[in-house]
Amino acid sequence: MSYGQQPGGPQDGRYGQQQGGPQNPQGPQYPAGFTPPQPMAPEDQRLWATLTHVGGIFFSLVVPIIAYLVLRDRGQFVKEHTRQALNFHITMAIAGFVCSLLAFVVIGLVLLPILYVIVIVFAIIAALAANRGDFYRYPLTIEFIKQ
Prior knowledge:
It is built from four helices and no strands. By secondary structure, it is an all-alpha fold.
C-alpha cells in the first residue's frame, strides 16, 4: 500500500472489479452493500424541482448546487430542473458581482435591484412550470453545466 491509498481499495478484490480488469458494459459497479440511487416518483421529482427554484430565491447558489449534486441521479426531470436552476443562479451571481463593482460608479445601484427582481420573477415562473410538470429554460442564462 502506498501513500494516499485507503485500505480495502479497488485493488484488494472486495469491490467486485479488480483494477485493470475487464470493464463492465452494463454501467458502474458499486461496492458491496451500496445500493445505487433509485429513481423518484414523478410527483417527488416535481416537488424537488419546485423547491430548488424557490430555494434559489432565498439562498442563491446554495440550494441549486446541493440539489443538483444530490438529486441529479434520481430522475431526468429533476436533473434538468436543478441543472437549469444552477446555471441561472451562477449567471445571476456573476451579474450581481459585476453590479456590485459598478456600484462605485452609481449605475450598479440602479442595476442591482433590477437584477433581484429578475431572479425572483424567473424563479417563480420556473417553479410554477416545475410544479405543472413542464420543463423550463431560464432566459438570460449562460450554460455552465451541460447535459
